[in-house]
UniProtKB/TrEMBL annotation:
<dbReference type="Pfam" id="PF00994">
    <property type="entry name" value="MoCF_biosynth"/>
</dbReference>
<comment type="pathway">
    <text>Cofactor biosynthesis; molybdopterin biosynthesis.</text>
</comment>
<dbReference type="InterPro" id="IPR038987">
    <property type="entry name" value="MoeA-like"/>
</dbReference>
<dbReference type="InterPro" id="IPR036135">
    <property type="entry name" value="MoeA_linker/N_sf"/>
</dbReference>
<comment type="function">
    <text>Catalyzes the insertion of molybdate into adenylated molybdopterin with the concomitant release of AMP.</text>
</comment>
<dbReference type="InterPro" id="IPR001453">
    <property type="entry name" value="MoaB/Mog_dom"/>
</dbReference>
<keyword id="KW-0500">Molybdenum</keyword>
<keyword id="KW-0479">Metal-binding</keyword>
<feature type="domain" description="MoaB/Mog">
    <location>
        <begin position="172"/>
        <end position="310"/>
    </location>
</feature>
<keyword id="KW-0501">Molybdenum cofactor biosynthesis</keyword>
<dbReference type="Pfam" id="PF03454">
    <property type="entry name" value="MoeA_C"/>
</dbReference>
<protein>
    <recommendedName>
        <fullName>Molybdopterin molybdenumtransferase</fullName>
        <ecNumber>2.10.1.1</ecNumber>
    </recommendedName>
</protein>
<dbReference type="InterPro" id="IPR008284">
    <property type="entry name" value="MoCF_biosynth_CS"/>
</dbReference>
<dbReference type="Pfam" id="PF03453">
    <property type="entry name" value="MoeA_N"/>
</dbReference>
<dbReference type="InterPro" id="IPR036688">
    <property type="entry name" value="MoeA_C_domain_IV_sf"/>
</dbReference>
<dbReference type="InterPro" id="IPR036425">
    <property type="entry name" value="MoaB/Mog-like_dom_sf"/>
</dbReference>
<comment type="similarity">
    <text>Belongs to the MoeA family.</text>
</comment>
């Protein structure tokens, strides 16, 4: 049994980046990272553009102008303005080549085809220059940039349809147990509804990992070996829930051994989640998580999250840890470090009741985990505690 710190370090050292390229449509590339520098195929804006609703002017020495037309956003025509002439113009519209500046409509008085501006303005006032954001051929976004919604919008505005991005891991979720049935069925005595795959799938989706398949296997040794062999050979990451302990019907550990999965560690001095397995087979990473839901999700956030970030070649691979003031008292039993389900808000954290590894109702309202180290025996109200913020 190893320490939490050693287990985290082993995950960081063992999981390598997936440096493969894939192509995605821009609108489906959210959460991916650019595989290569992206250069602008056009100027942005692609023409001199009005920054507001107002009047485009061919400047002269007087404050009075003659109105000769109108240009809306999307209009392709280019009115020719002489000195002292103006056109009504709207935000985003193309500025006529013969216009020098735009006066906002609030500072203009109109009388038929005559308008009077409040004061003189400088050339290019309220005009977005051609290529103000980026010019044709210039670097638009660097390799490794995360494609946020804003980045997606920016690339789309440049007319870019497809982008090369780093491939995300393909992930298999494997649930084990004869007692598990699907929601929607009648619940016979002795059975429980399966929830771990839905829980972990939701956690992965929230982190924008969508290449996920779900597999179920009964408590049968040969079936377990066959299923694990298939998913390990076809995925970058395999997450197994249940069957990793030492009961008569816990076959996961034996199956992994038969499949020559290299054990990196098994069992961590922590609560919940002591019977956690992490191993490797070639480039595939395998986590066998405890079957109890709260333990499985805790291990996901503390260890699997790191593996996912490493696969994406991210430097900040752990969830953020901050210091917060406890608003609760808590007595810790035993000498194992504990991850305690909690609610964090504005510098304060409440440790919740119901810390059992089988209890999901507490985790359902948590947005943080309070870490109580081996040395801690009691947390008092107003103590400063280490708090892990969850991506919820």
């Amino acid at each position: 049994m190893i320490s939490i710190e050693d287990a985290i370090q082993l995950v960081k050292l063992s999981v390598k980046p997936i440096l493969k390229k894939t192509t995605k449509q821009v609108e489906k590339a959210g959460g991916y990272f650019l595989y290569e520098d992206q250069y602008a195929p056009i100027n942005m804006p692609p023409f001199r553009q009005s920054a507001m609703d107002g009047y485009a002017l061919n400047l002269h020495d007087d404050l009075t102008y003659r109105l000769i037309g109108e240009v809306k956003a999307g209009d392709e025509h280019q009115p020719v303005l002489k000195k002292g002439e103006a056109v009504r113009i709207f935000t985003g519209a193309a500025i006529p080549d013969t216009a020098d500046a735009v006066m906002m409509q609030e500072k203009v008085k109109t009388d038929g085809n005559t308008l009077e501006i409040e004061h003189h303005i400088d050339k290019e006032h309220n005009i977005r220059p051609l290529g103000e954001q980026v010019k044709t051929g210039d670097l638009a976004l660097k390799k490794g940039t995360k494609l946020t919604p804003a980045a997606i919008g920016y690339l789309s505005s440049l007319g870019i349809k497809d982008v090369s991005v780093f491939k995300k891991p393909s992930i298999a979720l494997v649930t084990t147990g004869n007692e598990l049935i699907e929601a929607g069925q009648d619940l016979p005595f002795g059975k429980i509804y399966e929830s771990n795959s839905k829980m972990l799938l939701a956690a992965l989706y929230s982190l924008k990992f969508y290449d996920v398949s779900i597999h179920k296997v009964a408590d049968d040794y040969e079936k377990t070996v066959t299923k694990l062999n298939t998913v390990i050979n076809n995925h970058d990451l395999v997450l197994i829930t249940g069957g990793i302990s030492v009961g008569d019907y816990d076959f996961v550990g034996k199956a992994l051994n038969q499949l020559n999965v290299k054990e990196v560690f098994y069992k961590v001095k922590q609560k919940p989640g002591k019977p956690l397995f992490f191993g490797k087979k070639e480039d595939t990473s395998i986590f066998a998580l405890p079957g109890n839901p709260a333990a499985a999700l805790t291990c996901f956030y503390v260890y699997v999250f790191i593996a996912l970030q490493n696969m994406m070649n991210r430097d900040a691979s752990e969830l953020p840890r901050i210091q917060a003031k406890s608003v609760s008292d808590f007595n810790k039993k035993g000498d194992r470090p504990q991850f305690l389900k909690a609610v964090y808000n504005d510098g304060k954290v409440e440790i919740l009741e119901g810390q059992s590894s089988a209890m999901q109702h507490t985790f359902a309202v948590s947005n943080a985990l309070v870490f109580a180290s081996e040395e801690v025996t009691k947390i008092n109200r107003n103590d400063t505690v280490e708090t892990i913020l969850l991506p919820v």
